[in-house]
Structures are given as structure tokens and as C-alpha cells.
Write a structure and sequence with these properties.
Structural class: mainly beta
CATH architecture of the largest domain: Beta Complex
Distance between the termini: 22 Å
Helix content: under 10%
Number of domains: 2
Largest sheet: 5 strands, antiparallel
Radius of gyration: 23 Å
């Protein structure tokens, strides 16, 4: 019997902003063409990749603040009677509080003004270099959505690569993994936690490469926070993904989810297997790396029934 790795992931959100453990906030000022504050303007922050949104209203000074926003990209729309609506895009990372400025134009019945701009790649509110990888980028990057793949990191995070079957960032392999900001306990320094998180279950991956809190220790080279999918991007929908290739490799997943205004759920089951790495390496092979293949390297497959990560 050839070993098969099966893992499951289940997430319930009631509501999403309460379940998530990592938040950011967005602040802003709304004023008219004469730079006078616009009170009672409606500000809606909608997630770019799901139906999650949060609405706030500007105060007497035209200021607004939206708190407890899960990590990700948002479209911020401001509307007020007598003015044309305005729109900006922003990327929220954990602990950040970007400040937006909206100058509303005088509106007419036939006029609509939309302001669009790209979110800043550098966050002026924080000294921590942060890379945010979205679900759409994972889906469109070759190999990044495969189980046990770390391409979503090595392809997007500067100074990250895999060698000796371990993820290295900035020259070191001691990294911290978290789900919704809650660190995953890992006492084995030589073991990778990341491959245990299926990339297809990630909504956003937030990678920090320094400048983080000292609670992570003085020998941590990277912090990776996986924000799982919540179901807000689904409306009674599901996916079945299956592949088969050389070395009898297969990578399969079944997921489904849905949501209402206050409740969302997402569930997935995935499995993967391969014969790659079961053969004895030849003389010309210097080393062999098997990432996330939970099979013993042995010519006698009956010698062990243990599931382990093999590296030779």
C-alpha cells in the first residue's frame, strides 16, 4: 500500500471580523474642492476578493476610521449627496493604519467621477518590509497552488529560496508560521510547517522579512501569516481540482463554501501522493530533495509504515 497524505481544513466565521486574529485599520479625511470637511459621508470598504465589506460614516471634521479589517486588498468608496463618488484602493496588512485623503468633486445628475490608483508597494506606516500575496496571484502562478509547494513564497518574497528541503529567508531557515496571526507551535527547527498549509486554502499570505516585534525572537528570519479563505468569496459554490503526472504524482482537492450577511463557512479536503524519491539515487545524484512527500526513501517499501518527510 503506497502512503497517501490527506489533510483537511475547516473554517467557520461568525462574523469574519471577529474570527480573524490579525487586523489592520484604515483612516481617512474627506473634504470638498475648497478643502472644507465633508461630514456624514458614507465610506464603504469592500474586500477585492470576496463579498466582505465594512461601512462607516465621516464625523464633523470629515474624518473616518474603519477598524478590525482582515488582511487583504480593499476598494474604498466615498459617497455623499451633492458630490460625485470617489474610489481608492488600499492594501491592509496586520497592524497597519494607512491614511487616505478624498477630495470630492461637485456632482451633477449626469456626472460621475471615479478616482483610481494603485496601492503603495511600500507601507509608510510601518518599518517592517511586508509582502502580501493574494489568492489570485497564487492561482495564476505556475506550481504555486500545488500542495506542499512553496512557490508562492519563493516567487514573490525577496531573498527567499528552498535548499536542503528547507525554506530560507535572508540567509536563515528559522521562520515562524501563523494562521490568522496565531503562531503554529513548532519545536523542531529542522521541520517545515509551511508545506502543511495547502496554498489553495489561502486567501492572502502576509510575509514579514524583518523589523517585527521582539516576541518572535532574535533569530527569526521571516514571519509568514496565512489568512485562510472564509467563504465570503463563495455563493453556494465548490471546486473539484485533480491532476495526474509523471512519477504517478497526483494533487487533488475538493472545497466548498458560502455565506450570508453575518455568517460564512469554507471547508476543503485535499490529498497528494508521488512515487518521486522512492528510487535509490544514482552515482551522479549529489542530493535529492522531496518537499512534502510523506513517504520513506527505501527500495523496500515494506520496511516502514511511518509517515515522514524525506530528504536525502
Amino acid at each position: 500500500m503506497k502512503p497517501v497524505l490527506l489533510s483537511s481544513f475547516f473554517l467557520c466565521l461568525l462574523p469574519a471580523a471577529i474570527w480573524a486574529g490579525v487586523f489592520g485599520s484604515v483612516r481617512g479625511i474627506v473634504h470638498d474642492p475648497d478643502h472644507r470637511p465633508v461630514p456624514n459621508a458614507k465610506v464603504v470598504l469592500k474586500a477585492s476578493s470576496s463579498d466582505y465589506e465594512q461601512a462607516v460614516t465621516t464625523g464633523p471634521e470629515g474624518a473616518f476610521e474603519a477598524t478590525a479589517l482582515p488582511v487583504g486588498a480593499y476598494e474604498v468608496t466615498v459617497t455623499r449627496d451633492g458630490f460625485a463618488p470617489a474610489l481608492q484602493q488600499v492594501v491592509v496588512v496586520s497592524g497597519s493604519a494607512p491614511v487616505l485623503h478624498f477630495q470630492l468633486a461637485i456632482g451633477t445628475a449626469q456626472e460621475t467621477v471615479t478616482v483610481q490608483e494603485q496601492a503603495l508597494t511600500a507601507n509608510p506606516e510601518s518599518m517592517t518590509p511586508v509582502t502580501v500575496v493574494s489568492r489570485s496571484e497564487i492561482q495564476t502562478t505556475p506550481g504555486a497552488d500545488l500542495s506542499n509547494s512553496l512557490n508562492l513564497i519563493t516567487d514573490y518574497v525577496p531573498g527567499a529560496w528552498v535548499t536542503h528541503d528547507q525554506l530560507h529567508v535572508r540567509g536563515g531557515h528559522q521562520v515562524t508560521w501563523a494562521i490568522d496571526g496565531v503562531p503554529i507551535p513548532n519545536t523542531n527547527i529542522a521541520s517545515n510547517v509551511g508545506p502543511q498549509i495547502d496554498p489553495k486554502d489561502i486567501d492572502y499570505l502576509e510575509a514579514q522579512r524583518g523589523g517585527y516585534s521582539p516576541v518572535y525572537g532574535d533569530r527569526t528570519y521571516g514571519v509568514f501569516n496565512a489568512v485562510p479563505r472564509t467563504g465570503f468569496e463563495r455563493n453556494q459554490e465548490g471546486d473539484l481540482v485533480t491532476t495526474f503526472g509523471t512519477f504517478n504524482q497526483t494533487n487533488d482537492q475538493l472545497n466548498f463554501g458560502s455565506h450570508t450577511e453575518k455568517f460564512a463557512y469554507y471547508a476543503s479536503v485535499n490529498g497528494n501522493r508521488s512515487d518521486y524519491g522512492l528510487s535509490t539515487p544514482g552515482n551522479s545524484t549529489a542530493f535529492m530533495v522531496v518537499c512534502g512527500l510523506f513517504t520513506p526513501i527505501s527500495t523496500d517499501r515494506r520496511s516502514s509504515n511511518a509517515l515522514k518527510l524525506s530528504c536525502r
